[in-house]
């Protein structure tokens, strides 16, 4: 047994993390966040790259924006999304490092 003291994460931080994880707990939303880490994309581009309809993309994006993870800007008829949550890229990197299948 390890006798080193481990500092516990404060409850408020765990609650915030749990809320973020609940929102992100869908493969399409994770794929969207992964894509948006590379830049800003219009809804139709996100839908195409995620293999879903623009309507489905809008629903997912609306949820992510509603929880403060993304923001959007309109350019003409297109709506572009970008990541605004500083934690979201870290979550995606954590998934890349810890959840990738190892050969």
Structure characterization notes:
With 103 residues, the chain is α+β, with helices and mostly antiparallel strands. It has a domain at 41-103: Arc Repressor Mutant, subunit A, CATH 1.10.10. 55% of the residues lie in helices and 14% in strands. The chain is built from five helices and three strands, in the order ααβααββα. The protein has a three-stranded antiparallel beta sheet. Strand 2 (70-75) and strand 3 form a beta hairpin. The longest helix has 14 residues, at 11-24. The protein is elongated. It starts with 10 loop residues before the first helix and ends in a 5-residue tail after the last helix. The model has no long low-confidence stretch (mean pLDDT 93).
Number of helices: 5
Distance between the termini: 30 Å
* The CATH C-level class name of one domain: Mainly Alpha
Structural class, please? Answer: alpha+beta
Q: How much strand content do the residues show? A: 5-15%
How are strands sequenced across the largest beta sheet? Answer: 1-3-2
Q: Let me know the CATH homologous superfamily of one domain.
A: Winged helix-like DNA-binding domain superfamily/Winged helix DNA-binding domain
Low-confidence parts lasting 5 or more residues at pLDDT below 50? none
